[in-house]
Amino acid sequence: MMNQYETVFILTPVLSDEQAKETVEKFVTLLKNNGAEIINEENWGLKKMAYAIDKKSTGFYNLVEFKAEPTVVNTLETGYRRDERVIRFMTVKLDKYAAQYAEKRRNKLSNKEA
Predict the structure, then answer these.
(1) How far apart are CA 37 and CA 85, in angstroms?
(2) pLDDT tens by residue, 19-50
């Protein structure tokens, strides 16, 4: 059964924009190769963190929403742990209410861009 997930990960701020994009693309490709359906991808850019991690106070924030089998999440998180460019990550399974909220948020964002 496919569940809907949302993963947010923070990349180290020493990366160039190009390197950050490559890293995000790497994880999106990893998801697709494992049968996940990408719903939404957002780059939140370089943001200040609430507290320093590894003596870094900023990081590139990224969000990816996807539908996948539960086993795909383990593969994704193993990929995060192995990549030294990822400072922090969190993946959550969305229940039906969270999925509805995420859809409203996406629609609101797309209306602002239009």
Answers:
(1) 24
(2) 999 999 999 999 999 999 999 999 999 999 99
